[in-house]
Amino acid sequence: MSTTRTDSLVELAARKQLPYHQFTDVATVEWIKANRPDFPPAWPPPLRPTTKALVERAAIPTRWLAEPKLADSIHGHRHGLRTAVLAALLADWRGWDERMTATAVIAAAVHDCQRHHDRDDQGHGARAAVWLAANAELVWSHFGLSPHTRRVVQAATAVRLHEVPYDAFSAVDQVDYARASRVCDLVKVADALDRYRLPKLSWWPDGQFVREPAFEQLKPLAYDLVVTSEAAFLAGASSAEAVAFAVAEKGLV
Amino acid sequence: MAVEIEMRARFDKETHDQLVALLMEKAEDLGQDDKHIYFFVLPDQLLKVTDNKSAGTAKITLKNSKIGQGSAFGETEFPIAQQDVAAAVEVFNALGFQEAMHEAFNFRRNFNFKGIEIAVKWSEAWGYHAEFERLLTDDATAAAKDEAVAEITDVADELGVTLMTEDELAAFTAAFEAAEQARKEADQSPAEIH
Description:
The complex is a heterodimer. Chain A is mainly alpha-helical. In chain A, about 55% of the residues lie in helices and about 0% in strands. Chain A has one domain. In chain A, helix 3 (about 25-35) packs antiparallel against helix 12, helix 7 (about 125-135) runs antiparallel to helix 9 (about 150-160) and helix 9 (about 150-160) packs across helix 10. Chain B has helices spanning about 15-25, 85-95, 140-160, 165-185, and strands spanning about 1-10, 30, 35-40, 45-50, 55-65, 70-80, 100-115, 115-125, 125-135. In chain B, strands 1-6-5-4-3-7-8-9 form an 8-stranded antiparallel β-barrel. Classes of the chains: A mainly alpha, B alpha+beta.
């Protein structure tokens, strides 16, 4: 019996033995539930009808992934979908217009699609940005929209910079960021909020790495989306169904 | 062939939660019964391969009518081993039904209330919904079928649930099938650039 098949992600993380491809398990979801933080009252999150429509299209085809083995892994469809949902909520919260909201949701949905593995895959953001720019027509059509150059550049910039901490920005990064700062900030926040899926408390969402005043208010919802969708997936739902169920359970659609 | 009298309702999350709370109080809770279902939508029939995820069993079902074509469904059903679900789906696809196939996971909890089996469910296509069902023998008279429909309607009324009409069911399933077809066609779109 192999180690990777029998040990939970939590146990493997504690031993610093997480494999390249990481799939959640019952023990890890139970561990996440047992470590529910003492949250303040949850922020009620109504989604606008146009934003709901974006969320309903946010499941991307597995063939868009650089590594199809990651479809159901901790950086796979469930993470991409939850990040898109959180981006949608944030955009609505900020009162963004439909195009700007779509730019953020699309960037969030594809931000990890060119990962090769679940560990520290340096450069996956840059690869996904190039991929998104090359496939803009395909991706925007998937969301029922047409790509406009400015929006594609903003989304691709957010995708490229999502893996670069603010304090590690190069001069080039700073220039790019200045052209798309709002979308970049939002995708970073949405991505960070979904860190409740990770099997170590020190990796969970931390407001010091993002620029979002409402970060603390969003944590309970982000946590519940992780717990409900991960449990649903382990019960047998597909990744897309699992997140759709979690979104319904939270009354977002 | 048994005859199933089956009626449905769709509702929002709030109504779902109220219904479950009411059933937990008043009905017999038959437990969680999650299913992964492979549907083959044929011109006048519905073929299903069901993987009973919670129960650890599986079955093949043929219904001689589709949703939206009346509440009485003749039903032939037999169990298969859970590990044979994939092979069963493969056989039906190989027989030419692949174009008519779609699949869905159903979160489902069953209750028995006044002799009516009530399945409270969620699926991606239907959202929150419930199925009210009475099983009759194959020689059930038209009067017995009408009586079963009346019993289901009374139970739904008592629980505060509005049942869908046949027209609503037909419209909903037609819209779903069209959306599913559009999704399949979109899946044929050009491959991305690497």
